[in-house]
Specification:
By secondary structure, the protein is mainly alpha-helical. 54% of the residues lie in helices and 5% in strands. The chain has one domain (5-141): P-loop containing nucleotide triphosphate hydrolases (Rossmann fold), CATH 3.40.50. It contains eight helices and two strands.
Length: 149
């Protein structure tokens, strides 16, 4: 049994490279949880740079729930560095509920937002889903008294 539905779907679609990239990303340290001091400490021994370099080298980087919270200055600079290294070299998938039109404001700093979005949205394929959340639909299907039609 695989650990994540996305991973299962990638394997079922025979997208082995993407699946390996997803697995690699799932094994990486969650930098979002680190304080500034912890990030700074990683810079001192070189681990932070290695983590960013690792993200830049992955065949596929999946950024899930993009835009749930506004980026701080460190987040803006980190994402710009990662996207700059990946631009026109590796694939990046971004998922989130925030429409693309709201990304500039969520990123914050206008200059960095322009640079980030230029690398992220340029040559991108956008798929905008409409309708109810699948979680809501599936929940309603499992409710007692649902006829299944």
């Amino acid at each position: 049994m695989l650990a994540h539905p996305t991973l299962e779907k990638l394997y079922s679609l025979r997208l082995w490279g993407m699946a390996r990239g997803w697995e690699e990303q799932m094994r990486m340290t969650d930098l979002r949880e680190l304080t500034f001091e912890e990030r700074f400490g990683l810079l001192g021994d070189g681990r932070y740079g290695k983590v960013l370099a690792g993200l830049a080298r992955m065949d596929l980087l999946l950024i899930d729930d993009w835009g749930l919270v506004p980026l701080d200055d460190h987040g803006r600079r980190d994402i710009l560095e990662i996207l700059e290294d990946r631009h026109d070299v590796h694939s990046t998938i971004v998922t989130g509920q925030l429409p693309v039109s709201g990304w500039h404001e969520m990123i914050g700093d206008p200059t960095l937002a322009d640079a980030i979005l230029d690398r992220l949205v340029h040559n991108a394929h956008k798929i905008e889903l409409k309708g109810e959340s699948m979680r809501k639909i599936l929940k309603s299907l499992t409710q007692p008294g649902h006829s299944g039609t």
